[in-house]
Every structure is written in structure tokens, then in C-alpha cells.
Amino acid sequence: MKKSIGSRLTALTMAGIMAWSLTGCSGGNQAAxxxxxxxxxxxxxxxxEAAAQAPESGETVTLQFMxxxxxxxxxxxxxxxxxxxxxxxxxIETRVITWDVLTSTLQTAFAAxxxxxxxxxxxxxxGGFNALGACYDLTDAMEENGSEWKNEFIQASIDLGTVNxxxxxxxxxxxxxxxxxxxxxxxxxxxxxxxxxxELVELMDKVAATGIIPLIAPGNxxxxxxxxxxxTLAEPELYKAGKLTxxxxxxxxxxxxxxxxxAAGNKIKDWINKGYIDKNALAxxxxxxxxxxYTGKGLIYFMNNNELASVEENAKEAGIELGFxxxxxxxxxxxxxxxxxxxxxxxxxGTKYPEQSIRFLKYLSSLDVQQAFGEETLSVxxxxxxxxxxxxxxxxxxIFSKANSYRIKFDYSQGALITDENQAIADFIxxxxxxxADLGKTIAELKKICIEENAx
Length: 456
Fold this sequence. Notes:
Elements: H1 5-20, E1 23-25, H2 48-51, E2 61-67, H3 73-86, E3 90-96, H4 102-112, E4 118-122, H5 126-131, H6 139-147, H7 155-160, E5 162-163, E6 166-167, E7 170-175, E8 177-182, H8 183-188, H9 197-209, E9 213-216, H10 224-240, H11 247-250, H12 258-273, H13 286-294, E10 298-304, H14 308-318, E11 322-325, E12 341-347, H15 354-365, H16 367-377, H17 391-402, H18 417-430, H19 436-454
Parallel strand pairs: 2-3, 2-4, 9-10
Antiparallel strand pairs: 1-3, 4-12, 5-6, 7-12, 8-10, 8-11
């Protein structure tokens, strides 16, 4: 039996605290360590207790702000500096962590009652954070003045951060795993972009026969994109069974997925055995995988759209033209984006400064800030009024708008479920003796345990 979520949070404490102190700055200055807040609100709401501690008029307050994009330090330094100049009553102390410790760092901070006032998050996780009493309810702020702020975003992005009718997260930019391919190699060999999964398999057969890796999907750490690919293969099975679109599944209360993951597990191993995927992919890091792609050792690379800036730069250096596509659908199944999500923001329920935190979030959402960030980082931003000059950014917008996404929105704390699932997939791929049935049973059991321990 696995440990309860509470036990996992306790086990995460030291690692999370170390990650929490990685980097700190206000403008360009090192931030001082802060003492824990006196108490964490027991449940999310409008933050009346926190608002009662609001500073007197004219007093300067300091907001703790955390994000997980060290690669965008320059952009956030300017955003913070410009905001402070326009809001002299607010100072921002910025802390920077990395994406791989984001969830564990937040869970540790919530458990300790010492989370940042404003923090980045993945919007599909806010329901779980809300179950911990960690989310400040942003609904009233979003809907004031005729929903002026709310209307800056596409509805799908707002929906991802909405739990039980309450808006808990603010969209920042879209994020999704898609496929990038070497268009130069494709055309030189007379191959065509596959439109269906059957065409993808046919293409991979041809590519594998040449000694080129058809599909590059790194598996280090903890299964990484190999896990995402396996889940991508499970989604059509869930769709055909009528489960993917069910409320039970979408609320995270369906554990009966054994048959679907059995099929996906068998398919991923079959693809590896046929040479469609590198047999050593489980040990492959993102950096090693991208090197394979740019040196012509592979045709298609499983990537996140927010890697676009580096992908374009590396492709230019390698002298290749790029193509992008969603994962091709099975016959009778719509194009599905397994992990379409939104990088966003939330306000901690224990903040002493809700008004100032919301003011900062509105600035982060503003068209000028979003447009500039999108242009500099080639991100697809949350503000629906952003316009893009980059052809590939517009290609991503087109892919996202034409595909379907059925992301689970947990309204309870799922703890380490996703990490456990990814590790289970990695363990399955590593063990030649395991069949898809073994994977199906394991994934179903992990979901069942999590639901029994945490869903109400």
C-alpha cells in the first residue's frame, strides 16, 4: 500500500525547502529570507481574513513572487521593474525554481503555511491545491466591471483554472506536447506528413528501414516524454470506450482504465521493438534527444511548444527546415492533445496582500506585457488579443484550436499520482518481461488508491 498524501508531503519537506531557496531577487537585488506566515487559511475563499490585515494607505508592501523559468530571467526582471515603477506602493521579491520541482515545492510551502503571495502553477493542479486550502478565490476580481479581466482570455484557459464554479487560476501561456519533424529530411526522401496514426506507422516503417530513428522521445528522468507518449496512446482507447469524455474521468474519479492502458502499453513496446523508438530512449535526456534530432539521426521529435525559440535556433544552425503537427489521430477518433495545459498563476490563500497580488496578476495578464513576452520567447500567450508574427507560433495556435483536449481537473489533492504513473510507465518499459496487462493493472491501482485516500 502506498503512503498517504499527508505522509508524502512530510517526506517532501526537506527537498522542497531546498528547492524553495534556489534563487531570490527583487529587481536585481538578493531577497532576504522571510519567516513563515502566522497561519494558513483553512479553505479558499475571498480572503477576508487576509484582507483584514491589509496595510494602511501609503504603506509600501512586499509581495513574494515565484516562477519556474530561470531561462526567462531577463524578461521577468523587466516585468517586475516596470510594475514597481508604475506601482510605487509595491515591491516584488522574486524567487526562481525549476519546473521539475514546482509541484513538490508548492506542496511543501502550503503544508508549512509559507507560500509566496503570487506563484506560477499549472492550472490543472489548482483543484488539488484548493483542497489543501491554498488558493485565493479570484472569481469576484475576474468578474467585476462586466468580467473585464476574465474576458481577456479564451474560455478554455479560464475553465482549466476553474473548480466548482470558482476561478482559482490566471492563464499565462499555453503549453502542450506536440511533434516537430525534420521537413528537409521528409521532402528529400519523398515522404509526406502523416495525417492519421495509420499513416504515421507506415511512415515509421519506411524511416526505420533507413537506419534513422522515426520518433525521438526521451525517457530521462522518470519516463519523461516516453510516459507522455504512452498516455497519448491511451487517450484514443479511452475515447472509444466513452470514458475520456465522462464526468467521472474528467473529475479524476475514474480508476477503471486497465484495458486502455493495456492497449497503450502493448503498442509502445511494439513500437520500441520495431525500431520506431530508440531502444535506449528510457535513458535519453532532453538534451541528448534534441542532439539526435538536429544531427539528422531522427525524423520526428516529441517536444513542448514552449521549446520553440531554442528549436528554431538549433534548426537554423543545423541547416534544416521544421514542420509541426499534433499527434496523428486514429480512425474514428478526433485529434487529441493529451497534455494541453496552461502555465498560469495563483494567489496564496494566506496572503496578507490580496489587492496588491491581484493588481500584479492583472499586470502580468495585460496585453502589452503578454505581447512582449510572447514575441521574445515565442510562447502562445493566455491573452487572446495577442498577435504573432512568427509563423510557427501561429501554427501552434492553429493546432490548439483544431484539436480536442480532455484534461483531468482534480478537485482534490492527487499528491504524487502523476509522478507515480510516470514512474510506473518507465518501470514497465524497462522490464522486458512485463506486458501491457501489467501496466494497465498498475495504472488502475494507482488511480484507485489515490481516489480512495483523497477524493471526497
